[in-house]
Amino acid sequence: MVSDDSSSDGLAALGHPADDATSPGGRQGQGQGRGQDRVRVPAKRNLTSKLSPSDLIFRAIARGGGSVVLIIMILVGTFLGFRAWQALHKAGWSFLTTQTWNPNGGGFGIAALMVGTALIALVALVVAVPLSVGTALYISEYAPRRIQRLMVSAIDLMAAVPSIIFGLWGFVLLQWKAAPLAKWLSDWFSWFPLFHVSGVQRDDPLASLTTYTSSSFAAGLVVGLMITPIAGSVMREAFSQAPIGEREGAYALGATRWGMIRAVVLPFGKGAMVGGTMLGLGRALGETMAVVLIISPVYAIQPNILQHGTSSVSSLIALEYSESTPFGISALFAAGLALFAITLLVNFIAARIVGRSRTGAVSEA
Fold first, then answer.
1. What is the pLDDT of residue 16?
2. pTM surpassing 0.85?
């Protein structure tokens, strides 16, 4: 038998004192040690990530690109304001309310120009929005795969066609084909101020179709066809990203395809629809060559879109720049500054609306 003393000596040699394990004092000390271990809080560690050289290069390029865009916009606005200061200082606030344009011999302003620009853009939106929505829905929801690719390529190609080609087409063909439609609108809806044509009576056999050409209506038709690819592309991207889970849920509840589109696709792409429309509006406000080729300049407020003759800010600058005096060029820069501010505001609003839309959202189903 091994004595108690030898057992204690063996435990002590192994580093486990017998008194700590068996005596009440040892057990109490062991419990206190375990309690201290439980409440011990580890020290906080600051986690830092070290970017790789490629990440640093990409960040620098992205920041540099964004900064360059902002700097260019500021420089353009500053340049326009500097060149327009002479005319703005002379005209004052009347620059916004004067209809005539005669910088060298009388008053000048952009009242008539802004009305004409707004009417052309309004007609363009009335034409472009239904076409854009219908085209985007057909491509994303109804067209077969092979036709989808073909139509997407065709729309992208249509957006790349130069504006002067649209202008020639509108001047030679479209406005003459649309003149009977304009005459019909004037005959039956002349009580509406926009469709009234001065000096023309209904069913007048002597009325010529030239009365209905070179108008805001003709220019707006061409510009509307030009901005349709821009607005349609934005809408199509949003419609195609509608969550599949919500689509299948609508079908599971017995919805038809059109019911699914109304319940899922259109609410999902609502922001993109508004944003695409605003982007198209920004393009319509600044369109130049197509409008120059179609309209007949009239520097007076022309509220009737079917009436022969209208004007716009961009067409004024294109037509008058080469023959203007130094002061007249300053007045043209003032008109360009006003158009620049309006277009910038429209595009900024469009970007905010598109950013707040549900584009790219993932369904939780």
1. 46
2. no
